[in-house]
Structures are given as structure tokens and as C-alpha cells.
């Protein structure tokens, strides 16, 4: 079967929160396509595992242990990547936490703000540090939001608030950077198979006093396909958004949800 050359923008990228899960799959897709990729994570062991897993790819991999919600650590990560690769052409803001699962009136201020600090603060810190590098040669920014930023998710106020904020950030930055040939888009995954989704389902079941199997079936039934999506589905979408094939696509929030959300 013939293959299609996506002609990826630039030759280097930074991907946050990429020690495991969706972030690692995105880093794998990019390095397999020949892009040099720098990844960060707060979990040093996960970074070591990622380094072993991605060994032998066409692109080089640089790992950097850092907390994306810390502006100084993030600036150092971005600069290290730029120095190592001679610039940055792609930024993928994947870092995020699920936050607490409980009714809004039971949340503390710290619980609410700590979720925003990672999910929006990490996004801001990485992107703002990378913008001067992106402006030098054009590029792509892809932000990982969620379909939960578009529709309600009971007992998940901090998370859904942060993910809607990602969409607002994406649209505004797309306008700001348009004259510099930098496209900014978001992907909005639905329920992604894996340990994180399992924890969300278990938390939801616990907070609502329902069986885990019942909540899982409800999550699946939200899709007309009655399926969860995979990390590979999200990574493939990011890869396309980082390519020249989407040079006139900017300011968009693209669903990868098996049909759960269609707007």
C-alpha cells in the first residue's frame, strides 16, 4: 500500500507531559516521522521508560524532567530543546491532570486552582517560552483539550473549566500568531482507553454511589460507535495538524471522540 508524506513543519518539537499515555504516543509518532523531539514530565521514571521505548526512531529524543506548571523549569526545558535542536518548529501542549471528582460545593479553592495551574498554567508557560522560536520560521502549536471542555461532565468542574480554557487560548493565539505563519489548533479527545480513564470511571462511580460497570457502560454508550478512542487515534490527529497538509487550518478544536461530540 502506498504511503503519504505529510511533510511535517520544522524538524524539531517539544511535547509536554510525554512520559506515558497520549504524550508518549505523540512523541513516538513525531520521532517515527523523523522529527527531533524533546519531552518533559514530572516523573523521571516515566521519562526513562519513554526513552527506552522510543529508542531507534528516525528522529532524536531528548528527555527533561520538569514541572510544566513551573515557569522557570518550563523556560529552561524549552531553551534546552532549542539549543539542542537549533530551534523549535512544533509545540504540543499535552500536559494535564484529571483533578478531583466531587461536587463543586465540596471542592476547596486549592483543589480547583491546582488543576488550572497545571492544565492552563503549563500550557501558557510552554507556549509563551516557545513563541520567539516559532516566530523565526513559522510552525505549529497543538493543544490537547478534551470534549469535556465542550459539554458537561458531572463532578468535574475544575477539569472541564480548564479544558474549555484551552480552547479559548487556542483561538486567541491563532489570531496573534497568524502573521508569523504559526498555526494554533486543539484536539479534543473523548474517553481514551487506559489507566487514567479507569480512574475517572472509578471516581465517578464512587462519588455517585454506582457500580463501576454501570458507569463504564454509560461512558461507552455516549459514542454512536460505543467505543473509546485510543492514544494512537489522538497522536495520528496531532501528526496531521503538524503537517503542511493543514497549512490553512488554524484556530480549530478538532474532536477525536468516536462521535460523542460533533461540534
UniProtKB/TrEMBL annotation:
Gene3D superfamilies: NAD(P)-binding Rossmann-like Domain (3.40.50.720). Keywords: Oxidoreductase. Its EC number is 1.1.1.-. GO terms for molecular function: oxidoreductase activity. GO terms for biological process: monocarboxylic acid metabolic process. It comes from the Archaea. The keyword Disulfide bond does not apply. The keyword Lipid metabolism does not apply. Pfam families: adh_short_C2. Belongs to the short-chain dehydrogenases/reductases (SDR) family. This is SDR family NAD(P)-dependent oxidoreductase. It comes from Haloplanus litoreus.
